[in-house]
Amino acid sequence: MLDSCPALVLNADFRPLSYFPLSVWSWQDAVKAVFLERVYIVDHYDAYVRSPSFEMRLPSVIALKEYVHAARNPAFTRFNVFLRDRFSCQYCGSPFPSHDLTFDHVVPRSRGGRTVWTNVVTACGSCNLLKGNRLPQESGMYPRHRPVQPNSHMLQENGRAFPPNYLHESWRDYLYWDTELEQS
Predict the structure, then answer these.
(1) What is the mean pLDDT of residues 46-72?
(2) What is the assigned CATH class of domain 78-139?
(3) CB 3.0 to 4.6 Å from 123: which of 29, 41, 104, 159, for a disulfide?
């Protein structure tokens, strides 16, 4: 039961450290951080941890006492390319689960293209195969968005569009508290 009690980790400004993947710590790490006085407890589960001389409600939301600055330039990884492109093929525009995606060199490597942010886009297997080893003007297939090097803010914003499979009710206010409200 305790393993199903991760803690949402907020930065000192009460925003999640990361949206995708969501910033969560195991209950053990959260309790340790509380004892080391590195975090504030913002909300709790109805579960407890006990020792012979101590009892504590498990934290469900914690906030760091010291602000952690996000890296300005995210690592160039397959996952971050998919996140930049919102898990959608940049040729057909269809969204796919990550295991059905690949990445494509807009200018193929065999034609002098490099594996860099500005030359790599997310592609589904069908489009990648169809484009093959050709330039966009040869294949007639152009990316829907020009590939750019994202910053951390862009990836965070894109990550907000993909809610995780598990969201404890106590987390909801902290994940989307700065989302614009609909007016009726």
Answers:
(1) 92
(2) mainly alpha
(3) 104
